[in-house]
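Incident log, support desk, overnight shift.

02:14 A customer reports that sequence design results differ from what the structure should imply. Their input is reproduced verbatim below. On-call engineer (initials T.W.) acknowledged and began investigating.
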């Protein structure tokens, strides 16, 4: 077991208390707060000011939480992942890696939900290959050329961690290295072993393990995470508060509006705003069907009248 107390306090690491998390988790928390308080609009302003020609891992490191938000609607997941990625990381590879990770999380939640609804006593495990393929197909939409798509496929289907060269000099921050290590971890069965392997491979280790941990824990369940890693977190109570409120909101969003019980006005605003588009689509569909039915009835009536007249 690797414990927080075993951290070697060299010049780099002494800046963190035992159990403290790094900028990757900060990004996830900031997105969660942004969705709770201002619908993520602040992100757009940041992107306008800071276009970036490179493909660093800043967006993919924080994207896993976007697989939870509206997880039942893949179109919304892709849209949210792209919008929040593009605010700081416009490179198509950053967009593709953000979509791939967010969609994979959402697909796993959809799978769990279906299994629960089916009432299976022994739920079927997630089909890792199918999740990767579907996540790849949606992520590809951010890319243009065949070469770009082949590169994405290679990183998402990596089976040997070494081939990712996570500690490659001057390239440790490349978005596909992080995404590749996460999809490698996604194929593993032991959370602790997999995370330690990614960590020990070096490079941008906190970032790689943040995303790898998100995908593998989502597949295996929270019980797969070693207790000391959770219990020893320095801001655990504060983070749990946000997580619980966020998960409660996600649950509320799957209910019909009249059955929702938002805890305050801000929660209600988020629920309504996030759902506006979905409800508008449903309403349009209902109107279209109604008009079709009306037209069919009128046509039938006209035929009858014509046949009576003749
Ligand atoms: Mg990092």
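02:41 Re-run completed on a clean worker. Output:
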């Amino acid at each position: 077991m690797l414990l927080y107390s075993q951290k070697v306090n060299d010049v780099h690491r002494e800046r963190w208390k035992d159990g403290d998390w790094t900028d990757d988790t900060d990004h996830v928390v900031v997105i969660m707060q942004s969705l709770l308080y201002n619908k993520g609009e602040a992100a757009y302003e940041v992107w306008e000011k800071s276009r970036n020609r490179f493909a660093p891992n800043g967006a993919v490191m924080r994207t896993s939480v976007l697989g939870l938000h509206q997880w039942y609607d893949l179109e919304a997941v892709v849209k949210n992942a792209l919008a929040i990625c593009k605010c700081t990381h416009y490179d198509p590879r950053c967009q593709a890696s953000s979509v791939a990770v967010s969609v994979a999380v959402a697909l796993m939640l959809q799978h769990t939900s279906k299994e629960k609804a089916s009432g299976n006593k022994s739920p079927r495990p997630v089909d890792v290959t199918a999740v990767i393929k579907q996540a790849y197909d949606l992520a590809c939409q951010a890319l243009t050329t065949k070469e770009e798509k082949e590169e994405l496929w290679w990183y998402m289907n990596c089976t040997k961690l070494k081939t990712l060269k996570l500690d490659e000099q001057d390239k440790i921050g490349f978005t596909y290295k992080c995404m590749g290590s996460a999809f490698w971890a996604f194929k593993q069965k032991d959370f602790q072993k997999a995370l330690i392997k990614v960590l020990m491979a070096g490079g941008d280790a906190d970032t790689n393990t943040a995303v790898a941990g998100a995908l593998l824990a989502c597949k295996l369940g929270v019980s797969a995470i070693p207790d000391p890693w959770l219990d020893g977190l320095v801001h655990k109570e504060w983070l749990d508060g946000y997580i619980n409120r966020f998960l409660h909101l996600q649950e509320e969003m799957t209910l019909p509006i009249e059955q929702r019980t938002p805890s305050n006005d801000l929660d209600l605003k988020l629920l309504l705003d996030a759902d506006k588009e979905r409800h508008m689509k449903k309403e349009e569909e209902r109107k279209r069907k109604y008009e079709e039915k009306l037209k069919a009835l009128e046509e039938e009536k006209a035929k009858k009248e014509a046949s009576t007249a003749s």
